[in-house]
Request: fold
Amino acid sequence: MGKVFSIATMELRRWLRERSNIFFVFVFPILMVLMIGLMFGSSNLRIGVVVEPGDRLGPELIDDLDRQGIEVVAISSTEAGVTAVERGELEGLLVLESSGSPRFAARPDTAAEIGTLLEASLARASIQYRVADLMAERLELDSAQSLTIVNRAAAMSPPLVTVESETVGSALFGEAETRFDLGASQQLVLFVFLTSLASSGQLILSRKLGVIRRMTATPTSSLTVLLGETAGRYLIALVQALFIVGATMFLFGVNWGSLFGVGWIIALFCLVGTGAGMLLGSISSNEEQASGVGVMLALGLAAPGGAMVPAEIFSNTMRTVAKLTPHSWALQGLGELQFRGGGVGDIMAELAVLATFAVVLLLAATLSLRRNITP
Amino acid sequence: MILECKSIRKRFGDHTVVDDVSFYIAPGETYGLLGPNGAGKTTTISIVCGLLGKDGGEVLIKGQQMNTGTVSLRSAIGYVPQEIALYPELSARENLVFFGRLQGFKGPQLKRRVDEVLDVIGLADRADDLVAEFSGGMTRRLNIGVGMTHRPELLILDEPTVGVDPQSRNAILGAVERLATEGMAVLYTTHYMEEAERLCNRVGIIDHGSVIAEGTQRDLVRQIGQLDRVTIESPGALSPLVEQIEALTFVSTASAKEGQLRVLLRDGGRNLTRILHLFEDNDVEVRGVQIDVPDLEAVFLHLTGRALRD
Ligand SMILES: Nc1ncnc2c1ncn2[C@@H]1O[C@H](COP(=O)(O)OP(=O)(O)OP(=O)(O)O)[C@@H](O)[C@H]1O
Ligand SMILES: [Mg+2]
Reply:
């Protein structure tokens, strides 16, 4: 056991010595999270609106929100809108139905703010309608004409009332920032897998350097060497995963949800990456091939796995294909923890699938590597 | 005996690379395996270290069977591979510590051993530099150091001086000599006969997978009988001369390389003139002539008709 640990920590140390690794393992993922966060989340509030046919309030309301500098996004279905809110792509969703009162959805952290905002807008919009209706009736105007007049009055600047506000003291709780959440979990699975596959070249290099052979010339069984090399890869993946979680939490205030649940997903997903990397390393003929194929494979799996663009935009066929990648399961589990406040109990299915991936890949890699290591 | 090889045999496909090789090494003894490229030295060593399976015979380390699955006996051996086997991304010290751990050392004892080894291989002042920044000679020295961190009873060195400058080579040979006087048994392969002559108590000459002669240097030279070794230096074309010289009745063997013609012959002092006549007849210039007693190179030439290094 001590020797397994010695081999594993030595491999980690070797890995960290490489400057380009430091960049790809630590700097690049964080830059990606930052960029995606800046791209997706404008600092404006983004509100999705679903307008059902027959609703009258829609146009006035959208104008009103627009006047307040809120970005209004037309959404086709309630379901898609709710998902977008859950993932932090929208701050709120307003559903205007032809019958019944308007409904809105928002995340718990912003529900109060969005609620007040929408209520005020809805009140203003409905008052405009009442005034227009009243004018039409009393002044015998046609209702479209009167609505135009009311609208013009509402849009007149300066506004009737302006409220000056100032902030005092500091926030009692950290500001709930969510636009980095999705990017963080995507980059986590993307980079952990990428690193695991790309590092398979190191294994081939070790064989070529003769150091694996030299290890077996010491009183160290080939099984110990194999376990040590595997543990080394696993350690590299874990260090990166924990770094991404920690760094995005502290730098961008990313909300990961239950850290216990995240820990389980990371533990298993890193094992999947390790197995895939070891397998690739054992069947490749040289380190350039292994690293090249590794990068292609990692990117090729990350895209359908939903680690590059949200899986919500996929067609149904693509969603089925995505289920074949460990990425999609890891992201699904992380989403449950991040966006729906789930705990370990809610991600059992995802954990089971990841564990299966890990066992199959590690077993295949072990069989393939034993051939290489034993004399 | 620290090591006994009994009739070991190894085939690759239908090519027999090690053929019935037997030898032993007593504690504290330095044994040399001397042979040209492709003779089967590395293959033999790999089998001795349990890194390669054999097709016949047995290897005994301290009287116990050594096979590819035998793990515990390996601590008795310090293996220094022919090709450098080190982590270039790690420092000299880190390499020594890592392999020392695999030998079962830890803590202050490991640190002490590592410091000692760094001294022996003359790298104490470069201990914390990365191996990637080392010169060829320094890397070679560290390659050897890693094999002796655990003070093995048998140190196995596979051509440790290949591609090394004369100064590093001298340092390596000196270190091996020192270890041997401290009582470490050494198995040393080389195709430099000077190294075998300087270091080894006994030498086995291996060619095409077989040990064709074995003994102390004196034993081996005696096998040649009353032959003298004549070396003639010449800038001319020597190859055409070899055949004519070998046809002479008093000549055992002749070979030409690097502007030198080496001849083993009876009664060198008297018969030399006959050879020089051939140079004159063929109009080949002679720059220098030397008569010596035979050395290991001459033994190899006598036994195989070839020079050790072609
Ligand atoms: N894995 C292998 N497969 C096939 N042939 C091999 C293998 N390893 C060695 N050989 C062959 O076995 C023969 C002996 O090789 P070996 O490496 O033992 O020679 P050597 O005496 O160490 O030579 P050198 O001085 O060049 O190191 C060579 O002909 C070589 O081509
Ligand atoms: Mg060799």
